[in-house]
């Protein structure tokens, strides 16, 4: 009689992930998780193999933002888990759902100095909403569903699942495996988030505050983009005539080209508004903590956030806990019963639009100049125009670096939601190539264009091999200015001592051949130093939709130290 078919822990984990709806996983394989990656792929979860766990983690984090479902990160034990902490913590800081799965040493050998031994639960807990360990094979399906659910519930964030080597090698009968997955799925369905409590009074207060405001403003955060709130927010802006200000990754929820965009009048908008409806954004450093002198001391905040603790921390005039899309729909409904619209001739709207127009004209005058050797503005204008020429679906722009990201935020245009990915809440450098890979697999119909400083690019540059291996439609443009901020910026009194002849801490090899690195793996490389060369490279690479690196040589003295955050350095 033939032996009954069995399933090991690796196969069970792969099947459970697939049954829970996972479609992609990012990671680096090795002891003890190589089989888990293969088994997950066999179950329908596409595995993207990276060269470094940090990049894989950043990919998983961005995937969570782009899809609204947890990005999966797979690492080996010990140092692999430690490397994965970068992505886990980045996801939690940005409120993006992620599940990190790591193998770990045999439980029987824990505490004895086993191969890559680490208390991975203790290591991940500070950065995770939930950190759990499967101590037997039967635990795996339940914990997979539990962790995936925790990653998206409330304020999204990173979760961690530890599966020891001995558990991965345990086996159970095929029938029991199916029953465990079915039971886990049923329990997860039963534990689905209940409807949030009705907050009619808060909705009414918010609508009334906006109605009575003389200088209202809508602030759009990346949480609104994550919540797919674009239709509701556009309706609010269009029906009320209230100007809006997006945070960097909130750009595109309402098109940057919209007449009520206050992006080019940011200081005026936040300095003089009397009521600010903040949707899916925290009043942290990116918004000057909502405090004077950047904001008026009399401004009244209406704060919409999925996290009650955030409301309690900021103590706004009105706090509404809930999903951004649902809350704005309710505010729209409340306003519909007693509609109002500021109109183009309203003094506040006129002030914002005039200031924005004046600032745009000043910027466009600078952008119109072809400066060679390149400053930041000339190549960014050419890149902007090439991206806009692609139409819809718009390319996803990945932006990383100090000057490159800061200047790019003002120049590059987002007219569709979730088409800008940058360093985020933490200002994390090294996210670029991981983001590119996540965007390419999450949104396969879109071209991905990365605009990278050479320092930011260097963190994850080896992942260009990953781009080539999977033939992803990613064009990476490296702003090469010879180093961090632009090479050697030292004052004479800093160039002293026994090591004064060493390169500056901010210096890289001048005119490094980054494009040749891409060519070494079989991708397309371009070296550009003039507007004509850049336009040609963009046209050819955008049309090909194949992995490419454009090495764009920038004047080392064109940028500022620390971008726009000199006061922090």
TrEMBL record:
Residues 13-122 form the Thiamine pyrophosphate enzyme N-terminal TPP-binding domain. It catalyses: an (R)-2-hydroxy-long-chain-fatty acyl-CoA = a long-chain fatty aldehyde + formyl-CoA; a 2-hydroxy-3-methyl fatty acyl-CoA = a 2-methyl-branched fatty aldehyde + formyl-CoA. Its EC number is 4.1.2.63. GO terms for molecular function: 2-hydroxyacyl-CoA lyase activity; metal ion binding. Its cofactor is Mg(2+); thiamine diphosphate. Residues 401-552 form the Thiamine pyrophosphate enzyme TPP-binding domain. Coiled coil: none annotated. Residues 203-329 form the Thiamine pyrophosphate enzyme central domain. InterPro entries: DHS-like_NAD/FAD-binding_dom (IPR029035), HACL1-like (IPR045025), THDP-binding (IPR029061), Thiamin_PyroP_enz_cen_dom (IPR012000), Thiamin_PyroP_enz_TPP-bd_dom (IPR012001), TPP-bd_CS (IPR000399), TPP_enzyme_TPP-bd (IPR011766). It comes from the Eukaryota. Keywords: Lyase, Magnesium, Metal-binding, Thiamine pyrophosphate. It is an enzyme of class 4 (lyase). Belongs to the TPP enzyme family. Homotetramer. PANTHER family: 2-HYDROXYACYL-COA LYASE, 2-HYDROXYACYL-COA LYASE 1. NCBIfam families: PRK09259.1. Catalyzes a carbon-carbon cleavage reaction; cleaves a 2-hydroxy-3-methylacyl-CoA into formyl-CoA and a 2-methyl-branched fatty aldehyde. This is 2-hydroxyacyl-CoA lyase. It comes from Urochloa decumbens.
